[in-house]
Amino acid sequence: MSSDKKQQLIQAGIDLFSQRGFWNTSTASIAKHANVATGTLFNYFPSKESLIDAVYLHMKTQLLEELSGSLVQLGEQQQVKPVVEALWYRYISWGIKNPVEHDLLNQLKLSDLVSSEAKDRGMASFSDFNLHMQNWLASGELKEMDTGFFAELMLAQMQASIDYAIGHNLADMALAKHILLGFSVFWDGIRVTTD
Length: 195
Hints:
The structure is a single chain. The protein is mainly α. The protein has two domains: 46 residues, Orthogonal Bundle (Arc Repressor Mutant, subunit A); 144 residues, Orthogonal Bundle (Tetracycline Repressor, domain 2). The chain is 77% helix and 0% strand. α4 packs across α5 and α5 crosses α9.
């Protein structure tokens, strides 16, 4: 089986799910959009639900690759702030460059359309980040909180930054200032102060 066709089908799923919604998108329309026969779709995905899982995991992988680049760039950086800031920039940049994927990933995260197996696989792929979060929270630089709460807090604030940037067509210096301000507000809220 061709991995190109599989990728075409996943991309067609992303395009149509974001345009029409999950329930209003038929497997026939996905196959047509991918320029393959309807039967071909079922050679790769036994059901629409398995295609939804594949779309979800594909987007999680894209995001993971983007975020992992910042950890590689920073190497063995010991201070928490530069690492969290680099991840902040990478995540927001990915969301702004890939608004369809970002929005669709958020919809799928909140829906019951993704199988628990796919959600578990998606979470497992981010296990290194969970370990990093535990280390950051144990460093004494951040306020005491659960890693799950830290992750949700960070995601919510990055989501707000992405939505605002897209909604106001921010680019270049205006976008850089916006991202910096968003991080400053987030960091001031989570860091331990010595006042």
